[in-house]
Specification:
Radius of gyration of chain B: 16 Å
Helix content of chain B: 25-40%
Structural class of chain A: alpha/beta
Helix content of chain A: 10-25%
CATH topology of chain B: Mth169, Chain: A
Number of domains of chain A: 1
Number of domains of chain B: 1
Oligomer: heterodimer
CATH class of chain B: Alpha Beta
Number of strands of chain A: 11
CATH superfamily of chain A: Class I glutamine amidotransferase (GATase) domain
Largest interface: A-B, 19 and 12 residues
C-alpha cells in the first residue's frame, strides 16, 4: 500500500502517522508539502493531525485552500481513499469533501486523553477489521472536535451508514455521558457516501503500540492494507 | 476602499463561547444579560474603487474562505 501524507505548516502528527502506516504496510509513506500542486499515484492519501496555520480563522480553514488540496479533492472524487485525522477531519469538512463542521468543544477545554468509542459501521475499507458495536479506546487531542450538521444532514448520514464511530462511555455504550465534546449524535467519525473518505477525530496512529497504552487503532491500518493491497 | 465583514454563528448553532461570556457577565452582576453570541469582525483594505465590484469580491471571499456557511452567516459593509 503506497500512501502519501500531506504536511501543512503546523501539522504535528505526520511522523506518528508515517510510523503507523509503515508498521502496517511495510512501505514508507511519502510526505508531501502543502505547496506542491500535484500528487503521485498512491493507494491512500492522509491528512494528519496538528494545528495547521495555527488554527487561524477556523481550524483547517487555511489548509483546506492550500495548493495541494485541488489535487487531493480531484483524486478523492475519483475514488482514491482519503483518511483525515483530527485536524485532517477539520480540513475535510472545510474543503467540502465531508459534510458538517467541527466547532469549539462544548466544554471549552482542550481534550487530551484516551476516549471511548463505539464502531458504528464496519462495512468500509477503514473499519472492516472492526465489528459493529466494538468498544475502542483511542487517544484524542483536540480543541475543536464538536461535530455539527443540520438535522437533515444528520438523518442522511444515519440512513446511508456514513457514521463510522461514535463517542461512548467507559462501558462502551453510546450515551450523553460519553459525549466528550458536544458532538451531534456523539459523532466521532464520518464517511462520505462512496465510503472512500473517512474523517476521524481521535488518533488511531497513536494507538498502535502496546507500550503507549493500547493498540485499538492498529486494526484501522491493517484493514486498509488488506483492502488496498 | 474599505470593507468590513461580520461573521456570526447561525441561529440554532450552539455557541459555547457565547454561553461562557453570558455566565461570566451574570457572575459580575449584570443580571440583565439574557444571552450572548460571539462572532468575528474582519477589516479589509481593497484596491478597488467601485462599491458594487468591491461588494461582489468580498461576498466571494466570504463564501470561499472567511465564513463557513455550514455554521456561520456573514454581513458585508463597504465604506469609501
Amino acid at each position: 500500500m503506497k500512501s502519501a501524507i500531506i504536511v501543512f505548516p503546523g501539522s504535528n502528527r505526520e511522523r506518528d502517522m508515517a510510523l503507523a502506516l509503515q508498521a502496517a504496510s511495510g512501505q514508507t509513506p511519502l510526505l508531501v508539502w502543502h505547496k506542491q500542486d500535484t500528487l503521485p499515484a498512491v493507494d491512500l492519501i492522509v491528512l494528519p493531525g496538528g494545528f495547521s496555520h495555527g488554527d487561524y480563522l477556523r481550524a483547517g480553514a487555511m489548509a483546506a485552500r492550500a495548493p495541494i488540496m485541488a489535487a487531493v479533492i480531484a483524486k478523492a472524487n475519483a475514488g482514491t481513499p482519503v483518511l483525515g485525522v483530527c485536524n485532517g477531519f477539520q480540513i475535510l469538512t472545510e474543503c467540502g469533501l465531508l459534510p458538517g463542521a467541527l466547532m469549539r468543544n462544548a466544554g471549552l477545554k482542550f481534550i487530551c486523553r484516551h476516549v471511548d468509542l463505539s464502531v458504528e459501521h464496519d462495512n468500509s475499507m477503514f473499519t472492516r477489521s472492526y465489528a459493529n458495536g466494538q468498544h475502542l479506546r483511542i487517544p484524542a487531542a483536540h480543541n475543536d472536535g464538536n461535530y455539527f450538521a443540520d438535522e437533515a444532514t444528520l438523518d442522511r448520514l444515519e440512513g446511508n451508514g456514513q457514521i463510522a464511530f461514535r463517542y461512548a462511555d467507559p462501558s462502551g455504550t453510546v450515551s450523553a455521558a460519553g459525549n466528550i465534546n458536544g458532538s451531534q449524535r456523539n459523532i466521532a467519525g464520518v464517511l462520505n457516501p462512496q465510503g472512500n473518505i473517512l474523517g476521524f477525530m481521535p488518533h488511531p496512529e497513536n494507538a498502535v503500540d502496546p507500550r503507549l497504552g493500547g493498540t485499538d487503532g492498529a486494526a484501522l491500518f491493517s484493514g486498509l492494507v488488506e483492502a488496498l493491497a | 476602499m474599505k470593507a468590513t465583514v461580520h461573521i456570526t454563528l447561525k441561529n440554532g448553532v450552539l455557541d459555547p463561547q457565547g454561553k461562557a461570556i453570558e455566565h461570566a457577565l451574570k457572575t459580575l452582576g449584570f443580571d440583565s444579560v439574557a444571552g450572548a453570541r460571539q462572532g468575528k469582525y474582519i477589516e479589509l483594505d481593497l484596491d478597488e474603487s467601485d462599491p458594487a465590484r468591491a461588494a461582489a469580491q468580498v461576498n466571494a471571499m466570504c463564501e470561499k474562505l472567511l465564513a463557513n456557511t455550514v455554521i456561520e452567516n456573514y454581513q458585508v459593509e463597504i465604506a469609501g
